[in-house]
């Protein structure tokens, strides 16, 4: 339920306004260098502070509780913990009975019978993406020289990011965006069809990121408007290099050695300063709701590094599976 992976396994825990959030990573090979400073770059890309992001600022200091000794992984499970120190839980009291439209407030209440931690979205909060990014830092080390890169293509339907953010802030409303992720230097033949195809597993992982509502690989939905001769990628080298990359680096659910390319749609955050209508679950009456608290105008601004982490985690698991299969298939020493 809160665990992902076959060999490189992650288990996520915590709530937005609870004591902490964090990740447990199992299956990491021993001997990989891991220092506190390794997290700094990716954490800074996820941090708030820029225009259009939440005013909530957390220190995001990683506490490596196990699995690392003398700045190297030991092969034991790794636990990374982050304390929540900048919370204003009172802003969310009203949401227990009056759920935000578009948010998990209602569904969580129905599933967990009112016992869920509703403060700041609880376990459904984007705060938990910090834990994914932490696992991604380690995964990127495992998959080297494979490289993962995420970028914002557009927000609010515009490629002019700054103008779109300025407009949304002025209108006091939230906007979404589109993120592209590219994975380069990918080995051939990763993926386990049918149900563990590369697209299947990447999609599974990417949809664990709050606010993701769509994904496409290569030419994606444009493929429906192409002919076969247009969409097919001509193979131009014995290593599988293709002339074009409409397939996004994957054929039959298996990597073909070309760059993996996929894009994700990030929805607007549900918490917006505009007054919305919703149901008061206690009284059964419609209610006008104005959201208090600190929220992102455009969460997509902070998502590229999270998508990178998700992709790196999947690639680490696939690559470790491939190595394990190779070891099993090797003849035993006489």
Tags for this entry?
334 residues, alpha+beta, 5-stranded antiparallel beta sheet, 7 helices, globular
Outline:
This protein is α+β, with helices and mostly antiparallel strands and 334 residues long. It is built from seven helices and 15 strands.
Report on this model:
The structure is a single chain. The protein is an alpha+beta fold. Helices cover 24% and strands 22% of the residues. The chain has 7 helices and 15 strands. The strands form 5 sheets. Strands 1-2-3-7-4 form a 5-stranded antiparallel sheet, covered by helices on one side. A 4-stranded antiparallel sheet has the order 8-9-13-10. It has a two-stranded antiparallel ribbon with strand order 5-6. A hairpin with a 4-residue loop joins strand 14 and strand 15. Helix 3 packs across helix 7 and helix 5 runs antiparallel to helix 7. The longest helix is centred in the C-terminal third of the chain and has 26 residues. The chain is globular, with a radius of gyration of 21 Å. The relative contact order is 0.19. The mean pLDDT is 93.
The end-to-end distance, rounded to whole angstroms, is 43 Å
Report the strand count: 15
Beta-strand residue fraction: 15-25%
Strands of the widest sheet, in order across it, are 1-2-3-7-4
Write the layout of secondary structure elements.
Elements: E1 3-4, E2 9-14, E3 20-26, H1 40-46, E4 63-66, E5 68-69, E6 72-73, E7 78-83, H2 105-112, H3 129-143, E8 147-155, H4 161-171, E9 177-184, H5 198-206, E10 212-217, H6 228-231, E11 250-251, E12 254-255, E13 260-266, E14 276-280, E15 285-289, H7 304-329
Antiparallel strand pairs: 1-2, 2-3, 3-7, 4-7, 5-6, 8-9, 9-13, 10-13, 11-12, 14-15
Helix pairs in contact: 3-7, 5-7
């Amino acid at each position: 339920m809160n665990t992902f992976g076959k060999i490189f396994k992650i288990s996520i825990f915590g709530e937005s306004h609870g004591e902490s959030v964090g990740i447990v990573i199992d299956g990491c090979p021993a001997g990989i260098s891991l220092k506190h400073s390794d997290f700094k770059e990716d954490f800074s890309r996820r941090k708030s502070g820029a225009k259009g992001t939440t005013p909530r600022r957390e220190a995001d200091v990683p506490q490596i509780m196990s699995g690392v000794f003398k700045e190297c992984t030991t092969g034991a499970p790794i636990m990374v913990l982050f304390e929540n120190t900048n919370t204003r839980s009172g802003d969310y009291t009203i949401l227990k009975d009056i759920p935000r439209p578009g948010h998990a407030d209602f569904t969580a209440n129905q599933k967990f019978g009112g016992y869920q931690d509703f403060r700041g979205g609880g376990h459904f909060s984007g705060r938990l993406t910090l834990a994914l990014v932490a696992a991604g830092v380690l995964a990127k080390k495992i998959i080297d020289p494979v490289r993962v890169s995420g970028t914002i293509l557009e927000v609010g339907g515009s490629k002019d990011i700054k103008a779109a953010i300025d407009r949304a802030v002025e209108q006091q409303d939230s906007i979404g965006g589109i993120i592209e992720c590219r994975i380069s230097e990918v080995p051939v033949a990763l993926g386990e069809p049918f149900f563990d195809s590369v697209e299947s597993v990447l999609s599974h992982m990417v949809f664990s990121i709050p606010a993701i509502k769509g994904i496409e690989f290569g030419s994606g939905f444009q493929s429906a408007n192409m002919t076969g001769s247009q969409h097919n990628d001509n193979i131009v080298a014995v290593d599988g290099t293709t002339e074009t990359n409409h397939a996004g680096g994957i054929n039959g659910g298996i990597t073909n050695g070309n760059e993996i390319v996929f894009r994700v749609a990030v929805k607007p955050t549900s918490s917006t300063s505009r007054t919305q209508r919703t149901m008061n679950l206690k009284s059964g009456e419609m209610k006008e709701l104005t959201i208090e608290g600190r929220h992102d105008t455009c969460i997509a601004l902070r998502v590229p590094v999270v998508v990178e982490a998700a992709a790196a985690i999947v690639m680490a698991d696939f690559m470790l599976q491939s190595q394990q299969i190779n070891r099993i298939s090797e003849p035993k020493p006489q």
